[in-house]
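Thread: sanity check for a docking pose with zinc ion

Original post by kr_44:
Hi all, I'm comparing my docking run against an independent structure prediction. Below are the sequence and the ligand SMILES. Could someone generate the full complex and paste the C-alpha cells? I mainly care about where the ligand ends up relative to the chain.
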Amino acid sequence: MEIIVRRETKEDYRRVEEITREAFGYTERIERGGIGCPYEHWMVNELRKRDGVLELSLVAVVDNEIVGHVICSKAKVKKDDNELPVLNLGPISVLPKYQKMGIGKALIKELISNAKKLGFGAFLFFGRPEYYPQFGFVEAETFGVSDSEGYNYPSFMGMELIPGYLDCVKGGRFIESDIYNDDLNRDAVLMFDKSFSEEKYMRRCYELAIGAGKKGYDTFGAILVYDGKILEEAENTADYKKRIFGHAEFNLVHKCANKYSDEILENAVLYTSCAPCERCLGAIASLGVHNVVCGVSYKEFCKLLPFDYQAVDREGLLKQLGIQMTLKESVLEDEGMHVFEWWGGEYHPLEEMIAEMDEVKRNQK
Ligand SMILES: [Zn+2]
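Reply from moderator J.T.:
Ran it for you. Here is the predicted complex with zinc ion included:
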C-alpha cells in the first residue's frame, strides 16, 4: 500500500472535515447532542481561519483517496512577561478502516520534518503517551514546562526541533489557542456539525432517487429521520400511464402514517432529494412533520421543467392555514441536480437536459 503525504488544498477541505468527524467516531453522539465540545472536525475548519499553521496541514492519500489528515495550531509558552511560540500538534485523524496501517505514522514523520524545515522551535501537545514516544516525543516535564494550570502528566508531551529552544521559558506554562475552549465555542460547533448530518441524510435520499431512476421511475427519494436514526425510506414509484401518483414523499408519508406518534413526527426531520410538490406538501403537513430539508430547490428544479420558476412563499401559505413547517432548501444542490441524469432509467448528462428544456421554453414564447 503506497501512502502519499502532501499539503492540504482548498479542494480537500470538506472531505478532510468528514474524515475527521468519522475518525473520532462521534457521529451518533453528536446527533443526539450528548457529548462535550469542541469537536475535532469543527476545530480543523476553524484552524484554517485562525491559529492554524496551514503549511503544516497535511493529508495522507491512498489510491487517490484522502484517508488521513494532520494539522498544527499556534500555541505559546508563557513565563512571566516572556512568550515563546510553539506548535500544538493536532487534531490528527485517520479513517477507521485505514487505522493501524501506518498512515498516522507517515503523517507525523512528514509533519516533524516539515516543521523543522520551516524553522519552528518546538512541539507541545496532549496525546496518547503509548503512541508518540516512537517519534521522539517526550514528557513536557523534561523541558520544565507545565500545562496552563501548572500540572504535568504523561499525556502532555513535547519535542524540541531546535535544541535548547525551550530553555528560556523553563518553569513556564503552555497556552493553547482558545479554539480549545469548550464553553466559548459550543454554539458554533453545534451549528457547524448540523451541516454534516444534513449532507449525510441527503446523500441517502440521492441514492434512493438514483435507485428509483435505474428502475425506470423518476429520480426522487425521501427519508424520515428521528433522534439520529432513519425511521423510513421511500422512492418514487409514479406511473403516468396508470395515473399512479407515487411521489417519494407521498410514499414516505404512507409508510409513516398510523405508525409513529405525533410526538416523534413533530420532532422528526423529513429529508427529500428535491423540494416537494403541492400535493406532497399537503401530505407531509397532514402527517404532522414540521421540519423538511430539501436537496434541490424549487428554483433549481425548474431548470428541468418546461416552464419558468415562479416564487411562491410555501411556508407563509402553510402558516396562514395554521400549519407550522420549516422548509430548508439547497443541501448539496449541485450533487442533487446530477441525480436527475438517471431520470426514467436512461442516463442523460444534466447539461443536455437543461439545454433541451431551455429550447422548449424558448419555443413557447
Ligand atoms: Zn410530490
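Residues 247, 249-250, 276-277, 279-280 surround zinc ion (CB under 6 Å). Hope that helps with the comparison, let us know if your pose agrees.
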